[in-house]
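Submission sheet (multi-component)
Chains listed below:
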Amino acid sequence: MSKAGLEVLKREVARLERGSSPIASARFSTGVADLDNSLGGGLMRGAMHEVFAASMLDEASAAAFVIGLALRAAPSAPVLWVRQDFVGLELGEIHAPGLAELGLSPERLILVKARDGPGVLRAGEEAARCPPLGAVIIEPWGNPKTLDLVASRRLMLAAGRSGVPVFLLRAGGAPLPGAAATRWSVKAAASVPLEASAPGHPVFEVSLMRDRAGGAGRSWIVEWNRDVRSFSDVGDEGGSSLSGGVVPVSSGGPHPEEHGLRRAG
Amino acid sequence: MLVEKVKGESRIAAVSRNARRAGLAPGLTLADARARIPQLWVEEMDRQADARLLDAVAEDCDRVTPIIVIDAPDGLVLDITGCGHLFGGEAGLRAGLSKRFGRAGLNVRTVIAGAPDTARALARHGRVAIVAPGEEAAAVRGLPIAALGLAHKDQLAISRAGLKTIGALADRPSALFTARFGEEMTGRLARLQGLAPSPLTPRRAVPMLWAEQRFAEPIGRMEDIEATLANLGEEVCRMLLARREGARRMEAGFHRADGAVRRIAVETGRGLRDVRALMRLFRERLDAVADPLDPGFGFDLVRLCVLEGESLAVSQPELDGRALEADEVANLADRLSARFGQERVLRFVARDTHDPARAARSVPVLQEAADAAAWPALSAGEPPLRPPRIFDPPQPVAITLAEVPDGPPRAFHWRRREHRVVAHEGPERIAPEWWREASAEARDYYRVEDADGRRFWLFRVGDYGVEGAPPRWFLHGAFG
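Outcome: structure written.
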């Protein structure tokens, strides 16, 4: 066999191995050490993670949290986002410059618009089987009938085989029995204000509702920093400083200097 | 006999064989005809129905060759170059077609010749069936001048000069006719004799290349159909490889034994030459079409055409992993486009505008579109200044507690809740693009955060303190 042929074969074998074994070791970190530790070293890459908003008004925060996770999992690979049409009407259409502001470069994104729940799941599963993708975000509306235990197991399986993290963003949905590796509830939280009391970087309170590995029940207040593409722990300080126009001494934030440089709004 | 109104008078448009024998001819007025033969059976001419029938016949002829020209109102020109052997030679093809149409109740005259105009003229005016190669000029010699299809007065002028046949014209120097009747006439004469090429405009795009399979026993099972398609796919891919091209647009035609044709088209984002990827695309399409492929009594011809291609280098085994991965993502986009429709698989391109609602444009992944502008540069340390989600149109909000004229509201009502603003930044004034919308007003945008930490993008239209209506507030987007 020629040398080139051998190379192809080697790659193929590597690919098959990647697909068949549960890649327990392949995890990505959120950037928040405490959170990562309680998950056993970060979120599983080849798995499906389900994210809920604590209320309808927190849907944007849930989406931003998912974008953050996708960026943690895949700093440069393409991201595919499947969205049910109704979500756009109800919660707003995806605004590419806003994605860029969160660190997700719009040219990396493929958006698939599906009419109904079954379409969303079908496209999502198809995408979840495509290893070169960095992440797949699936956003159906409400509780589609087709999103049953079988469908969620299939997504989990597809993600496990391809190694692509799948984020099921449950816009307007309620938790149902499912196979997700982790399940989160996201709520907007007060940001660390900038100079002249301008709203700061996105801050969320994320609660781990369920973890197949068993660490559920805790919550964290995390801040997303686009520049370093990482979450960081805000702790309690972020929550208490919302009324002041004072620049906080930022005990938890990893980027205190940047705040000082900021121009006034 | 069929009549139609010409300048307010009912004139005969077409006659049956019997009527012709009785001396009636197109052009005669209905009153004259009635005077001669009172018991005429008269129907209104329906040219649209004729055109529909001709189109149906053309569709059926598609099984012979994909290159078909409609010769209105009642003719078809089929380019059968290289098709004869499939039907037992040209004579076999001609006999087969005549028999097929005879069964359908159509009376047709078929002529095979080396040039389209020769065949067309002979079918309408001659008695020959098949013209041997090179014999075109001889074959048309006996035809009447009418075969040239000239305007009536030119035709009259030629026959007045005593010239009755094409042969008589061909024997005289063409310069004579050019001087009298113009280039057009000599051009027609040359094309008729097969001496000059005839431009053809087929009714459907001529495929770049195609492969087809015929069945003596029509096939109907889905597995058979897919297997056939896969075989044809392999053949097409071999041809593409030889041309170093990949397919961009393809079409599979399924010809039912009763003449109906069903076509399934797929498009790809870049040249494709991989049978497996190709078959997956067709399978997606077949799954997605609302009415499934109805085989009826079965398909007796399946043809796979490449309508459009692009050059595609012969792939090297040492193609690096990155290119392979990009290929896989492109394949995925193709499949999703085939299933959900091109307009539903999108990517974003930046647009050069300061109007936030127009700053990004979504285009089908399969469609080529360059970014009109670069995405705005982000400065380090800034929080997101644009929300990842915007409402279209912006949603009006009620102000429950107004603040100073230049600031944002201290509280507003949106989605059944009051939001108390605890932090804000702004205004960022965005002037309307007056060249696009004359009546638009400038907007003052604010980023605000409410007491629960929710961040919104609000804007105000109009100013305080100005005569007239108070300013109005809208919520344009939600930050995370």
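Remark: Chain A has one domain: 32-186+196-239.
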